[in-house]
Amino acid sequence: MRDHECVKLRTGKVIRNMCIMTIVVLIVTATVVWACIFTKNMKNAQKTTPIEVTSTTTTMTEETTTTNTLSTASSTTSVTTTETTSTATKGGITNRRWNETGTAVAGGSRRGDRLDQLNSPCIIQIDSDDDRIMYIVERFNHRVLRWRQGENQGEIIAGGNGKGSRLDQLDHPTDQIVDKSTNSLIICDSENRRVIRWFIQNPTDTQQQIILSNFDCSGLAMDTDGNMYVSDYKKREIKRWKKGETNETTVADGPGLGYQVEGGYLPLYFFVDENHSVYVWDNDNNRVLKWAKDAKDAIVVAGKYDTEDIVTRVSGRHGLFVDRNNNIIYACDLVNHKIIRWLNGSKDGSVIVGRYGQGRQPWQFGMPSTLAFDRQGNLYVADYGNDRIQRFDVIDD
Ligand SMILES: *[C@@H]1O[C@H](CO)[C@@H](O)[C@H](O)[C@H]1NC(C)=O
Ligand SMILES: *[C@@H]1O[C@H](CO)[C@@H](O)[C@H](O)[C@H]1NC(C)=O
Ligand SMILES: *[C@@H]1O[C@H](CO)[C@@H](O)[C@H](O)[C@H]1NC(C)=O
Ligand SMILES: *[C@@H]1O[C@H](CO)[C@@H](O)[C@H](O)[C@H]1NC(C)=O
Protein backbone atom coordinates (compact mmCIF):
# COMPACT_ATOMS: atom_id res chain seq x y z
CA MET A 1 0.00 0.00 0.00
CA ARG A 2 2.73 2.37 0.90
CA ASP A 3 4.45 1.64 -2.38
CA HIS A 4 1.44 2.87 -4.25
CA GLU A 5 1.42 6.00 -2.24
CA CYS A 6 5.01 6.53 -3.13
CA VAL A 7 4.34 6.11 -6.83
CA LYS A 8 1.57 8.63 -6.76
CA LEU A 9 3.71 11.11 -5.02
CA ARG A 10 6.64 10.80 -7.35
CA THR A 11 6.83 14.45 -8.08
CA GLY A 12 10.09 15.32 -6.50
CA LYS A 13 13.18 13.80 -5.13
CA VAL A 14 12.50 15.03 -1.65
CA ILE A 15 9.20 13.28 -1.39
CA ARG A 16 10.60 10.12 -2.85
CA ASN A 17 13.40 10.14 -0.37
CA MET A 18 10.92 10.60 2.39
CA CYS A 19 9.07 7.53 1.21
CA ILE A 20 12.24 5.53 1.15
CA MET A 21 13.07 6.70 4.61
CA THR A 22 9.62 5.75 5.81
CA ILE A 23 10.05 2.27 4.45
CA VAL A 24 13.43 1.94 6.07
CA VAL A 25 12.00 3.07 9.36
CA LEU A 26 9.19 0.57 9.03
CA ILE A 27 11.60 -2.25 8.34
CA VAL A 28 13.73 -1.29 11.28
CA THR A 29 10.71 -1.09 13.53
CA ALA A 30 9.58 -4.53 12.48
CA THR A 31 12.93 -6.04 13.18
CA VAL A 32 13.34 -4.30 16.51
CA VAL A 33 10.65 -6.51 17.88
CA TRP A 34 12.63 -9.57 16.95
CA ALA A 35 15.52 -8.03 18.72
CA CYS A 36 13.49 -7.82 21.86
CA ILE A 37 12.86 -11.52 21.87
CA PHE A 38 16.04 -12.88 20.49
CA THR A 39 18.51 -10.79 22.38
CA LYS A 40 17.13 -11.88 25.67
CA ASN A 41 19.70 -14.53 26.39
CA MET A 42 22.62 -13.64 24.21
CA LYS A 43 24.97 -14.79 26.91
CA ASN A 44 23.68 -18.32 26.67
CA ALA A 45 24.09 -18.62 22.97
CA GLN A 46 23.71 -22.10 21.60
CA LYS A 47 25.03 -23.41 18.34
CA THR A 48 22.45 -25.89 17.18
CA THR A 49 19.71 -23.50 16.33
CA PRO A 50 17.07 -23.52 13.67
CA ILE A 51 17.17 -19.79 13.27
CA GLU A 52 20.08 -17.52 12.96
CA VAL A 53 19.73 -14.03 14.24
CA THR A 54 22.26 -11.50 13.12
CA SER A 55 22.62 -8.48 15.23
CA THR A 56 23.71 -5.51 13.22
CA THR A 57 23.62 -2.63 15.60
CA THR A 58 24.23 -1.31 19.04
CA THR A 59 23.40 -2.61 22.44
CA MET A 60 21.11 -5.34 23.59
CA THR A 61 18.96 -3.34 25.89
CA GLU A 62 15.37 -3.48 24.99
CA GLU A 63 14.92 0.25 24.88
CA THR A 64 17.37 0.81 22.06
CA THR A 65 16.84 0.43 18.38
CA THR A 66 18.57 -2.82 17.68
CA THR A 67 18.33 -4.14 14.18
CA ASN A 68 18.21 -7.88 13.96
CA THR A 69 17.71 -9.93 10.88
CA LEU A 70 15.99 -13.22 10.84
CA SER A 71 18.09 -14.94 8.28
CA THR A 72 17.68 -18.68 8.10
CA ALA A 73 15.59 -21.49 9.29
CA SER A 74 16.76 -24.99 8.70
CA SER A 75 13.72 -26.81 9.87
CA THR A 76 10.11 -26.37 10.64
CA THR A 77 9.85 -24.87 14.03
CA SER A 78 7.26 -23.09 15.96
CA VAL A 79 6.39 -21.91 19.35
CA THR A 80 3.66 -22.56 21.72
CA THR A 81 1.96 -20.40 24.13
CA THR A 82 -0.58 -20.41 26.76
CA GLU A 83 -3.83 -18.90 27.17
CA THR A 84 -4.05 -19.05 30.90
CA THR A 85 -7.21 -17.06 31.04
CA SER A 86 -9.91 -18.41 33.23
CA THR A 87 -12.06 -21.15 31.91
CA ALA A 88 -15.01 -18.78 32.02
CA THR A 89 -13.97 -17.42 28.66
CA LYS A 90 -15.65 -19.04 25.76
CA GLY A 91 -14.27 -19.36 22.30
CA GLY A 92 -17.59 -20.05 20.78
CA ILE A 93 -19.31 -21.70 18.01
CA THR A 94 -17.93 -23.23 14.89
CA ASN A 95 -19.36 -20.74 12.43
CA ARG A 96 -18.42 -17.74 14.48
CA ARG A 97 -16.82 -14.82 12.66
CA TRP A 98 -15.11 -11.69 13.83
CA ASN A 99 -14.85 -8.23 12.41
CA GLU A 100 -11.37 -8.31 10.97
CA THR A 101 -10.90 -4.64 11.72
CA GLY A 102 -9.79 -4.41 15.30
CA THR A 103 -9.90 -1.68 17.90
CA ALA A 104 -6.99 -0.84 20.16
CA VAL A 105 -8.35 -1.20 23.69
CA ALA A 106 -4.97 -0.60 25.34
CA GLY A 107 -1.78 1.00 24.09
CA GLY A 108 -1.34 1.51 20.40
CA SER A 109 0.47 4.78 20.55
CA ARG A 110 4.20 5.03 21.01
CA ARG A 111 6.00 2.35 22.93
CA GLY A 112 6.73 3.55 26.44
CA ASP A 113 6.30 3.04 30.15
CA ARG A 114 3.69 5.62 30.96
CA LEU A 115 0.42 4.18 32.21
CA ASP A 116 -1.23 4.81 28.85
CA GLN A 117 1.56 3.06 26.97
CA LEU A 118 2.69 -0.51 26.57
CA ASN A 119 6.01 -2.13 25.79
CA SER A 120 5.87 -5.63 24.34
CA PRO A 121 2.65 -6.98 25.83
CA CYS A 122 3.04 -10.75 25.68
CA ILE A 123 -0.05 -11.80 27.62
CA ILE A 124 -3.65 -10.60 27.50
CA GLN A 125 -6.21 -12.05 29.88
CA ILE A 126 -9.80 -11.11 30.50
CA ASP A 127 -11.12 -11.15 34.05
CA SER A 128 -13.31 -14.17 34.67
CA ASP A 129 -15.99 -12.07 36.39
CA ASP A 130 -15.84 -8.84 34.44
CA ASP A 131 -15.35 -8.72 30.68
CA ARG A 132 -14.19 -5.12 30.81
CA ILE A 133 -11.14 -5.82 32.94
CA MET A 134 -7.98 -6.84 31.15
CA TYR A 135 -4.68 -8.05 32.60
CA ILE A 136 -1.65 -7.28 30.52
CA VAL A 137 1.81 -8.67 31.11
CA GLU A 138 4.45 -6.40 29.61
CA ARG A 139 7.68 -8.17 29.10
CA PHE A 140 9.88 -5.14 28.63
CA ASN A 141 8.18 -2.87 31.12
CA HIS A 142 8.66 -5.54 33.79
CA ARG A 143 5.15 -5.05 35.08
CA VAL A 144 1.56 -6.24 35.00
CA LEU A 145 -1.24 -3.80 34.27
CA ARG A 146 -4.91 -4.04 35.05
CA TRP A 147 -6.78 -2.00 32.49
CA ARG A 148 -10.50 -1.37 32.33
CA GLN A 149 -11.76 -1.13 28.78
CA GLY A 150 -12.84 2.35 27.87
CA GLU A 151 -10.31 3.97 30.14
CA ASN A 152 -7.24 5.51 28.62
CA GLN A 153 -4.73 4.08 31.03
CA GLY A 154 -4.06 1.07 33.18
CA GLU A 155 -2.90 0.62 36.74
CA ILE A 156 0.17 -1.28 37.82
CA ILE A 157 -0.67 -4.31 39.92
CA ALA A 158 2.73 -6.01 39.88
CA GLY A 159 6.26 -4.86 39.15
CA GLY A 160 6.68 -1.43 37.67
CA ASN A 161 9.69 -0.76 39.86
CA GLY A 162 12.26 -1.22 37.15
CA LYS A 163 13.98 -4.40 36.12
CA GLY A 164 15.53 -6.22 39.05
CA SER A 165 15.51 -9.12 41.46
CA ARG A 166 14.15 -7.44 44.56
CA LEU A 167 10.87 -8.84 45.79
CA ASP A 168 9.07 -5.76 44.50
CA GLN A 169 10.58 -6.08 41.04
CA LEU A 170 10.18 -8.27 38.02
CA ASP A 171 12.64 -9.10 35.28
CA HIS A 172 11.02 -9.96 31.95
CA PRO A 173 7.73 -11.46 33.14
CA THR A 174 6.30 -13.81 30.52
CA ASP A 175 3.07 -15.21 31.90
CA GLN A 176 0.73 -15.14 34.86
CA ILE A 177 -2.29 -16.69 36.48
CA VAL A 178 -4.96 -14.58 38.09
CA ASP A 179 -5.74 -16.56 41.24
CA LYS A 180 -9.12 -15.29 42.37
CA SER A 181 -9.25 -17.53 45.42
CA THR A 182 -6.38 -15.64 47.04
CA ASN A 183 -6.76 -12.39 45.11
CA SER A 184 -3.25 -12.70 43.85
CA LEU A 185 -1.27 -13.04 40.68
CA ILE A 186 1.13 -15.90 40.15
CA ILE A 187 3.77 -14.57 37.81
CA CYS A 188 6.48 -16.24 35.82
CA ASP A 189 9.35 -13.86 36.47
CA SER A 190 11.50 -15.41 33.80
CA GLU A 191 14.87 -13.69 34.05
CA ASN A 192 14.78 -13.99 37.82
CA ARG A 193 14.16 -17.70 37.23
CA ARG A 194 11.31 -17.75 39.68
CA VAL A 195 7.56 -17.98 40.03
CA ILE A 196 6.28 -15.38 42.42
CA ARG A 197 2.94 -14.69 44.01
CA TRP A 198 1.91 -11.06 44.09
CA PHE A 199 -1.10 -9.98 46.13
CA ILE A 200 -3.42 -7.57 44.37
CA GLN A 201 -5.30 -6.33 47.41
CA ASN A 202 -2.84 -3.77 48.54
CA PRO A 203 -0.40 -2.59 45.92
CA THR A 204 1.92 -1.07 48.51
CA ASP A 205 2.09 -4.33 50.39
CA THR A 206 5.28 -5.97 49.26
CA GLN A 207 4.55 -9.34 50.75
CA GLN A 208 5.40 -11.25 47.65
CA GLN A 209 5.98 -14.97 47.98
CA ILE A 210 8.43 -16.90 45.92
CA ILE A 211 6.67 -20.07 44.92
CA LEU A 212 9.41 -21.60 42.81
CA SER A 213 13.02 -20.60 42.32
CA ASN A 214 15.91 -21.64 40.09
CA PHE A 215 13.43 -22.62 37.43
CA ASP A 216 13.50 -21.47 33.81
CA CYS A 217 9.80 -20.81 33.71
CA SER A 218 7.99 -19.14 30.87
CA GLY A 219 4.42 -20.42 30.75
CA LEU A 220 1.93 -20.94 33.55
CA ALA A 221 -1.52 -22.39 33.98
CA MET A 222 -3.86 -23.53 36.72
CA ASP A 223 -6.55 -26.12 36.25
CA THR A 224 -9.99 -26.26 37.76
CA ASP A 225 -8.69 -28.16 40.81
CA GLY A 226 -6.07 -25.54 41.57
CA ASN A 227 -3.12 -27.62 40.34
CA MET A 228 -0.36 -25.49 38.91
CA TYR A 229 1.46 -26.08 35.62
CA VAL A 230 4.76 -24.44 34.75
CA SER A 231 6.80 -24.82 31.59
CA ASP A 232 10.58 -25.02 31.62
CA TYR A 233 11.61 -23.53 28.30
CA LYS A 234 15.18 -24.79 28.48
CA LYS A 235 14.38 -28.37 29.43
CA ARG A 236 11.39 -28.26 27.09
CA GLU A 237 8.95 -29.74 29.52
CA ILE A 238 5.84 -28.88 31.43
CA LYS A 239 5.52 -29.81 35.07
CA ARG A 240 2.51 -30.02 37.31
CA TRP A 241 2.33 -29.36 41.03
CA LYS A 242 -0.80 -30.77 42.58
CA LYS A 243 -2.48 -28.43 44.97
CA GLY A 244 -0.93 -28.70 48.40
CA GLU A 245 1.92 -30.95 47.26
CA THR A 246 5.53 -29.96 46.85
CA ASN A 247 6.59 -32.77 44.54
CA GLU A 248 6.01 -32.37 40.84
CA THR A 249 5.22 -34.50 37.83
CA THR A 250 6.32 -33.95 34.25
CA VAL A 251 3.16 -33.87 32.17
CA ALA A 252 4.57 -33.04 28.73
CA ASP A 253 8.03 -33.03 27.26
CA GLY A 254 9.88 -33.48 24.02
CA PRO A 255 12.55 -31.93 21.82
CA GLY A 256 9.93 -30.26 19.64
CA LEU A 257 8.55 -28.22 22.49
CA GLY A 258 9.84 -24.74 22.91
CA TYR A 259 11.68 -22.57 20.49
CA GLN A 260 15.37 -22.04 20.64
CA VAL A 261 17.21 -19.42 18.69
CA GLU A 262 20.77 -18.34 18.67
CA GLY A 263 21.30 -16.52 21.89
CA GLY A 264 18.00 -17.31 23.43
CA TYR A 265 14.64 -18.93 23.62
CA LEU A 266 11.07 -17.92 23.12
CA PRO A 267 8.62 -18.75 25.88
CA LEU A 268 7.25 -22.26 26.01
CA TYR A 269 3.56 -21.57 26.24
CA PHE A 270 0.80 -24.15 26.52
CA PHE A 271 -2.85 -24.56 27.34
CA VAL A 272 -4.65 -26.65 29.97
CA ASP A 273 -8.32 -27.48 29.44
CA GLU A 274 -11.13 -28.34 31.82
CA ASN A 275 -10.17 -32.01 31.79
CA HIS A 276 -6.57 -31.20 32.69
CA SER A 277 -5.33 -32.04 29.22
CA VAL A 278 -2.22 -30.16 28.18
CA TYR A 279 -1.86 -28.74 24.65
CA VAL A 280 1.47 -27.68 23.22
CA TRP A 281 2.99 -26.90 19.87
CA ASP A 282 5.35 -29.52 18.52
CA ASN A 283 7.73 -27.24 16.71
CA ASP A 284 9.59 -29.96 14.93
CA ASN A 285 6.49 -31.21 13.19
CA ASN A 286 4.35 -28.14 12.99
CA ARG A 287 1.37 -29.50 14.88
CA VAL A 288 -0.44 -29.25 18.16
CA LEU A 289 -0.05 -32.13 20.60
CA LYS A 290 -2.33 -33.00 23.45
CA TRP A 291 -1.44 -34.92 26.56
CA ALA A 292 -4.60 -36.14 28.23
CA LYS A 293 -4.48 -36.08 32.01
CA ASP A 294 -1.77 -38.43 33.25
CA ALA A 295 -1.21 -39.79 29.75
CA LYS A 296 2.33 -40.75 28.91
CA ASP A 297 1.98 -40.16 25.20
CA ALA A 298 0.52 -37.30 23.27
CA ILE A 299 -1.90 -37.34 20.38
CA VAL A 300 -2.00 -34.91 17.46
CA VAL A 301 -4.97 -32.57 17.59
CA ALA A 302 -4.16 -29.94 14.95
CA GLY A 303 -1.77 -29.55 12.09
CA LYS A 304 -0.90 -27.23 9.28
CA TYR A 305 -3.12 -24.37 8.39
CA ASP A 306 -2.92 -22.75 5.00
CA THR A 307 -0.35 -22.66 2.26
CA GLU A 308 -0.01 -18.92 2.19
CA ASP A 309 2.50 -18.74 5.00
CA ILE A 310 4.88 -15.96 4.34
CA VAL A 311 7.55 -17.66 6.34
CA THR A 312 6.72 -21.29 5.87
CA ARG A 313 9.80 -22.66 7.49
CA VAL A 314 9.48 -20.64 10.63
CA SER A 315 6.17 -20.89 12.27
CA GLY A 316 6.20 -19.18 15.58
CA ARG A 317 2.89 -20.24 16.92
CA HIS A 318 1.85 -18.59 20.09
CA GLY A 319 -1.28 -18.14 22.11
CA LEU A 320 -3.08 -21.44 21.99
CA PHE A 321 -6.65 -21.42 23.13
CA VAL A 322 -8.71 -24.57 23.14
CA ASP A 323 -12.47 -24.60 23.18
CA ARG A 324 -13.00 -28.22 24.06
CA ASN A 325 -16.75 -28.04 24.11
CA ASN A 326 -16.83 -27.14 20.49
CA ASN A 327 -13.61 -28.88 19.57
CA ILE A 328 -11.93 -25.72 18.32
CA ILE A 329 -8.30 -24.73 18.67
CA TYR A 330 -7.13 -21.16 18.20
CA ALA A 331 -3.54 -19.98 17.92
CA CYS A 332 -1.55 -16.86 17.25
CA ASP A 333 0.96 -17.21 14.46
CA LEU A 334 3.62 -14.86 15.73
CA VAL A 335 5.78 -15.02 12.65
CA ASN A 336 3.09 -14.74 10.01
CA HIS A 337 1.00 -12.22 11.95
CA LYS A 338 -2.24 -14.17 11.84
CA ILE A 339 -4.80 -15.73 14.11
CA ILE A 340 -5.62 -19.30 13.14
CA ARG A 341 -8.50 -21.61 13.96
CA TRP A 342 -8.85 -25.35 13.58
CA LEU A 343 -12.39 -26.66 13.61
CA ASN A 344 -13.51 -30.07 14.69
CA GLY A 345 -10.14 -31.71 15.01
CA SER A 346 -9.29 -30.78 11.46
CA LYS A 347 -5.71 -31.05 10.35
CA ASP A 348 -6.06 -27.91 8.30
CA GLY A 349 -6.68 -24.64 9.98
CA SER A 350 -7.74 -21.33 8.54
CA VAL A 351 -7.03 -17.68 9.19
CA ILE A 352 -9.68 -15.79 11.13
CA VAL A 353 -7.97 -12.41 11.53
CA GLY A 354 -4.82 -10.96 10.03
CA ARG A 355 -4.95 -11.71 6.32
CA TYR A 356 -3.07 -8.61 5.28
CA GLY A 357 0.47 -9.17 6.45
CA GLN A 358 2.48 -7.39 9.06
CA GLY A 359 1.65 -3.81 9.91
CA ARG A 360 0.05 -1.36 12.27
CA GLN A 361 -3.30 -1.00 10.57
CA PRO A 362 -6.32 -2.09 12.61
CA TRP A 363 -6.54 -5.25 10.49
CA GLN A 364 -2.88 -6.12 10.85
CA PHE A 365 -0.52 -7.41 13.54
CA GLY A 366 3.11 -7.05 14.43
CA MET A 367 3.72 -10.41 16.05
CA PRO A 368 0.51 -11.44 17.77
CA SER A 369 1.55 -13.19 20.96
CA THR A 370 -1.49 -14.45 22.83
CA LEU A 371 -5.26 -14.33 22.54
CA ALA A 372 -8.26 -14.38 24.81
CA PHE A 373 -12.03 -14.25 24.56
CA ASP A 374 -14.61 -12.53 26.66
CA ARG A 375 -17.94 -14.13 27.42
CA GLN A 376 -19.55 -12.56 24.36
CA GLY A 377 -16.93 -14.24 22.20
CA ASN A 378 -15.07 -11.06 21.29
CA LEU A 379 -11.46 -11.80 20.50
CA TYR A 380 -8.54 -10.02 22.17
CA VAL A 381 -5.00 -10.24 20.90
CA ALA A 382 -1.77 -9.10 22.52
CA ASP A 383 -0.14 -7.41 19.54
CA TYR A 384 3.35 -7.71 20.92
CA GLY A 385 5.33 -5.76 18.35
CA ASN A 386 2.75 -3.01 17.98
CA ASP A 387 2.55 -2.44 21.74
CA ARG A 388 -1.20 -2.66 21.82
CA ILE A 389 -4.12 -4.89 22.72
CA GLN A 390 -6.56 -5.34 19.85
CA ARG A 391 -10.19 -6.33 20.21
CA PHE A 392 -12.08 -7.97 17.33
CA ASP A 393 -15.80 -7.96 17.80
CA VAL A 394 -17.74 -11.09 17.18
CA ILE A 395 -20.22 -10.74 14.30
CA ASP A 396 -23.64 -12.06 15.15
CA ASP A 397 -25.25 -13.71 12.19
C1 LIG B 1 -16.06 -3.60 11.65
O1 LIG B 1 -15.46 -2.56 12.41
C2 LIG B 1 -15.31 -1.36 11.69
C3 LIG B 1 -14.51 -0.40 12.56
O2 LIG B 1 -14.99 -0.38 13.85
C4 LIG B 1 -16.68 -0.82 11.34
O3 LIG B 1 -16.53 0.37 10.61
C5 LIG B 1 -17.41 -1.85 10.50
O4 LIG B 1 -18.71 -1.43 10.25
C6 LIG B 1 -17.45 -3.19 11.22
N1 LIG B 1 -18.01 -4.19 10.34
C7 LIG B 1 -18.94 -5.04 10.71
C8 LIG B 1 -19.37 -6.04 9.70
O5 LIG B 1 -19.44 -5.03 11.82
C1 LIG C 1 3.81 -36.53 46.19
O1 LIG C 1 3.88 -36.70 47.57
C2 LIG C 1 2.70 -37.23 48.16
C3 LIG C 1 2.87 -37.33 49.63
O2 LIG C 1 3.60 -36.25 50.13
C4 LIG C 1 2.41 -38.61 47.59
O3 LIG C 1 1.20 -39.10 48.11
C5 LIG C 1 2.31 -38.49 46.09
O4 LIG C 1 2.16 -39.77 45.52
C6 LIG C 1 3.56 -37.85 45.52
N1 LIG C 1 3.36 -37.66 44.11
C7 LIG C 1 4.30 -37.90 43.22
C8 LIG C 1 3.97 -37.64 41.81
O5 LIG C 1 5.39 -38.35 43.52
C1 LIG D 1 -13.95 -34.32 29.84
O1 LIG D 1 -13.84 -35.72 29.79
C2 LIG D 1 -15.08 -36.37 29.90
C3 LIG D 1 -14.81 -37.86 30.02
O2 LIG D 1 -13.91 -38.29 29.05
C4 LIG D 1 -15.93 -36.03 28.70
O3 LIG D 1 -17.18 -36.67 28.78
C5 LIG D 1 -16.13 -34.54 28.66
O4 LIG D 1 -16.80 -34.17 27.49
C6 LIG D 1 -14.80 -33.82 28.71
N1 LIG D 1 -15.04 -32.41 28.87
C7 LIG D 1 -14.74 -31.55 27.95
C8 LIG D 1 -15.03 -30.13 28.27
O5 LIG D 1 -14.25 -31.88 26.91
C1 LIG E 1 -18.06 -31.47 13.78
O1 LIG E 1 -18.19 -32.84 14.05
C2 LIG E 1 -19.47 -33.22 14.54
C3 LIG E 1 -19.43 -34.67 14.90
O2 LIG E 1 -18.36 -35.34 14.35
C4 LIG E 1 -20.50 -32.90 13.48
O3 LIG E 1 -21.79 -33.23 13.97
C5 LIG E 1 -20.45 -31.44 13.15
O4 LIG E 1 -21.33 -31.14 12.10
C6 LIG E 1 -19.06 -31.03 12.74
N1 LIG E 1 -19.03 -29.58 12.57
C7 LIG E 1 -18.42 -29.01 11.56
C8 LIG E 1 -18.48 -27.52 11.53
O5 LIG E 1 -17.82 -29.62 10.70
UniProtKB/TrEMBL annotation:
NHL repeats lie at residues 364-395. The chain crosses the membrane at residues 20-38. Pfam families: NHL. The lineage of its organism: Eukaryota, Metazoa, Spiralia, Gnathifera, Rotifera. Keywords: Membrane, Repeat, Transmembrane, Transmembrane helix. This is Uncharacterized protein. InterPro entries: 6-blade_b-propeller_TolB-like, NHL_repeat, TRIM-NHL_E3_ligases. One of its GO terms (biological process) is proteasome-mediated ubiquitin-dependent protein catabolic process.
